[in-house]
Design a protein that fits this description.
- It is a multi-pass membrane protein.
- It is found in: Membrane.
- This is Major Facilitator Superfamily.
- Keywords: Membrane, Transmembrane, Transmembrane helix.
- Pfam families: MFS_1 (PF07690).
- The protein is mainly α and 518 residues long.
- The chain has 3 domains: 91 residues, no CATH class; 157 residues, MFS general substrate transporter like domains (Growth Hormone, Chain: A); 237 residues, MFS general substrate transporter like domains (Growth Hormone, Chain: A, Up-down Bundle), CATH 1.20.1250.20.
- 65% of the residues lie in helices and 3% in strands.
- The protein is built from 22 helices and 5 strands.
- The strands form 2 sheets. Strands 3-4-5 form a 3-stranded mixed sheet. Strands 1-2 form a two-stranded antiparallel ribbon.
- A hairpin with a 5-residue loop joins strand 1 and strand 2.
- Helix 8 runs antiparallel to helix 15.
- The longest helix has 29 residues.
- The radius of gyration is 25 Å and the shape is globular.
- The two termini are 36 Å apart.
Length: 518
């Protein structure tokens, strides 16, 4: 077996590593997402050098070459997650999305029968609402079984909090998993499926939970959830492979050392010598650092947090508005079909967005701002949905008006989320998991507070004025995607063949202020 060292790119410098191998100057642990995603992972557009088994990168100094040989991916390497078959990629994508669907469903299904545990445990609505708040704070599912068997309200609340903690993994890691297996120009459809699962779950939850609570009791809400999660868990164990390149390359290096007897074969992550304490520190602090210092991530995460909070607000606002109109819990759950119709309609726009995005990639390479037109459309549609919801909420207006209001809201919600999520992942390719974790942390933290104040807001202000206030906040947030799309340096860049958009300049000036962005 031979290992052919490629030459270093022109103009690149070398930084000595303690093991004796010289690597490009991005080998410091804070310059790569060593814990979560994309350490040593190469985009297919980068240069590769091939041989029979693996391609390696070594220093040109013969004395140092004898000490370590860097194992990496070769071109069209079958073990590289980016080179999996489309069937395998879509299997991983669908299972990952089902994991997120189970988490999202678990967060909302209990809102279908809030009065059930109130009556059995003789507690207030605010106390029962904690079963949503504490779940969303952590996001988890393992402790769903204790929730179904809870003998008192304390056990129910604690088990929901622990379930929330356990479910944080899918919500923060699936975005990174999809970035591991899909090339940037092909990632849009997979991200759409993932994003839709996050929002479809909360819409299905009240519908299912309402009828279960009305017919066989609130405890069966947790039993049904437990069964669904069990099926998804089994699929995950059976069909989900490891996709993180540093882990796979470390395994490859170990296998090659065993096969060849050559102890100098090392993966990049093995040469970094990052201690467990350092890895934990990076995992815990980097998302917070990004969230506090990256203008792009701050704006996008803030907008997504607002959208997410609106969704959870609707779980409690719908009963407040529709119970006086004579609907029961099961019938109120059916009105969320309007939101699901809006989600489906937004998905129909995705092929048009993806076609335009690929044309931009063909002409200019990867341009993250080319993801934003769908978000621009959603930001305009969102206030309309909120205004319709506000002024159809009076008791004398037929309930169909409230149901119809869900359609533009659902379409806007998914259009904004899919576009913004893809924009974040395309921008922070080397720090995908950290950026997604930062966004998810803020979104879940703020969203978890909604059940604590939504009743007071809608009762104190009346539903029409409370929703009108939210509509005006949506108008204030509307310019965000337009600013990122149009504000640019002076370079002339044309956005090719996209609907009615005139020649535009991308937001590279703003992106340049985000130091971790590509």
């Amino acid at each position: 077996m031979s290992f052919v060292p490629p030459s270093l790119p022109k103009g690149s410098s070398e930084v000595p590593i303690s093991s004796g191998v010289h690597l490009p100057p991005t080998s410091h642990p804070y310059e790569r997402d060593v814990v979560l995603r994309h350490v040593g992972d190469q985009h297919p557009d980068e240069d590769h050098v091939s041989n029979s088994d693996a391609h390696t990168e070594v220093n040109s100094d013969p004395e140092l070459d004898a000490k370590h040989t860097l194992v990496s991916w070769e071109e069209n390497d079958p073990e590289n997650p980016r080179n999996l078959s489309r069937l395998r990629k879509w299997t991983i994508t669908l299972i990952s999305s089902a994991l997120c669907l189970s988490v999202a469903l678990g967060s909302s299904i209990v809102t279908g029968d809030i009065p059930g545990p109130m009556e059995e445990f003789q507690v207030s609505e605010e106390v029962v609402n904690l079963t949503v708040t504490l779940f969303v704070v952590g996001f988890g599912i393992v402790f769903t079984l204790p929730s179904a068997l809870a003998p008192n309200i304390g056990c129910l609340i604690v088990s929901r909090a622990l379930a929330g903690l356990a479910s944080s993994a899918p919500m923060t890691n699936v975005g990174g998993t999809l970035a591991d297996i899909w090339d940037v120009e092909d990632r849009g459809a997979a991200m759409a499926v993932f994003s839709s699962s996050i929002f479809m779950g909360p819409c299905i939850g009240p519908l299912i939970g309402g009828f279960i609570g009305e017919t066989i009791g609130w405890r069966w809400i947790y039993w049904v959830l437990f069964i669904f999660v069990g099926v998804v868990f089994a699929a995950t164990v059976l069909f989900m492979p490891e996709t993180l390149s540093p882990v796979l390359l470390r395994r490859r290096a170990a296998r090659l050392r065993k096969e060849t007897g050559n102890p100098t074969l090392k993966s990049e992550s093995e040469l970094q010598h990052v201690s467990l304490a350092e890895k934990v520190k990076i995992s815990l602090t980097r998302p917070l650092i990004l969230l506090a210092t990256e203008p792009l991530l701050i704006c996008m995460s803030g907008y997504l947090t607002f959208i997410y909070s609106l969704l959870y607000l609707f779980f409690f606002a719908y009963p407040i508005v529709l119970l006086p109109k004579g609907l029961n819990a099961g019938e109120i759950g059916l009105t969320f079909i309007g939101v699901m119709i809006g989600i489906f309609c937004a998905m129909l726009l995705l092929p048009l967005q993806e076609k335009a995005y690929r044309k931009v990639c063909e002409k200019r390479g990867v341009v993250p701002e080319a993801r934003l037109p769908l978000m621009m459309f959603g930001s305009i549609l969102l206030p309309f949905g909120l205004f319709i919801f506000a002024w159809t909420s009076m008791s004398h207006v037929h309930w169909i008006g409230t149901a119809i209001a869900g359609a533009p809201f659902g379409a806007a919600m998914v259009a904004v989320y899919i576009s913004a999520n893809s924009y974040i992942i395309d921008t922070y390719q080397r720090y995908t998991a950290s950026a997604v974790a930062a966004k998810t942390f803020l979104r879940s933290l703020v969203g978890a507070t909604v059940p604590l104040w939504v009743n007071q807001m809608y009762v104190g202000m009346t539903p029409q004025w409370a929703s009108t206030l939210l509509a005006f906040l949506a108008i204030l947030a509307m310019p965000i995607p337009f600013v990122f799309f149009y504000v640019s340096s002076n370079q002339e860049v044309r956005y090719y063949e996209l609907m009615v958009f005139s020649p535009a300049q991308y937001g590279d000036k703003i992106r340049a202020r985000s130091t971790k962005a590509n």
